[in-house]
Structure formats: structure tokens, C-alpha cells
Amino acid sequence: MPGNSPSEAVENFVTPIKDALSCLGDSAVIYRDHPPLDTIQTLTLNGGEGLEVPVDGDYAPKLLIEVEMSYLVIHCPDDEDRGPYRCTTCAYILRIKQGNAELMSFHWHPGQNVSPERLPHFHVGESRLPQMQTLHIPTPRVSVEEFIQTTIEAFGVRPTVDEKTWRELLDSTLGPHREYRSWSERYEAPYQDGVVESG
Predict the structure, then answer these.
(1) How high is the pLDDT of residue 59?
(2) pTM for the whole thing?
(3) Which domain covers residue 120, as residue numbers?
């Protein structure tokens, strides 16, 4: 997201994420709001503890939503659309769990030594199906809003607001992401060589 200062770029990046997560419940998005330029920072949901959310159904257990993103603020004075400062995503892990069992997660971690896969992908049921740990199912870039919508529609997570409100909220927070992102398709992903460069 662009901004006239590094802190404004970070705030423009984080505010839609916080607003989108609000439809799942009260949570704290932890991040560094005045980071040095060209230094990778981490954003987490409740300090990495995630958010426990109710699920539709009388006997359904609660699920745990986890969000972790790496971001970077760069100075781009010549970019009229995305400058003079821009906060950009460098990696993400968006996960839904039941207890300690991971049900599904969306990953993009090109500069981390987590796995040899450098492009966006997802994992299904690794904790329940250990043989799936090396399976990386290709995806395009996944936003926090798209992840939240998946948790509601596919996993029955119960939002704190009615359907019309959460759909409008996610649509409004996804708008700036779509407007300012520099890539969306898997083959467009930066840092495919595993080196996350600044500037």
C-alpha cells in the first residue's frame, strides 16, 4: 500500500487487514508501525496465538485462525501510483486449525527456508494426513479477505456480523489490495529465486 511516509504506508497496509479480521471477532494485529526502510517485518494475529472462532452447528468445536505476514516498506519516489513509500507483502501463512491439527493453510514464503516451494500454494490436513506434508497445491496469491471468506463459507466459521455486512466489509477491504498489489497470479510472484530483495 502506498503512503506519503513509511508509517502511513504501513498503516494503509494494516488497516484493511484489521478491518477484515474484525468480522471474525475481537483480535489484535501485532506489527511494527514505524519500521526502518528495506527491513522485513512481521505481522501476526494476536502475537502468533491466532484467534479462536465459533463454528456453525450445535456440537461443532471451535477453530483457530492464524495469520502471519512478512512485509517491507520501500522508498519508490518515481512510482506515481504506489509511492513515494510503499508497504508490500513479502510472505504469508494463513492457517485454519482444529486443536493442534492443521485443516488447511495458504502459504507464500519465497525467502524463507520453510520448504523448496517458492510460489503460492496451499496444504490440506497435514496434521491428519502426514503424507501430505510435502504436497504443495498451486494457488494464485491469496489475500487475508479471501482467506476469511474461505473460513466462513467452507469451514462454517461464524462471523460476528450478518452475511450482508461481512460480505460488504470484505469487499471494501479487498478493494485497496486489488488496486495497489503488484501481482496476483502464481507465475507473477516475485522472489521466485528465494531472495527477497529490498528497494
Answers:
(1) 65
(2) 0.89
(3) 2-183
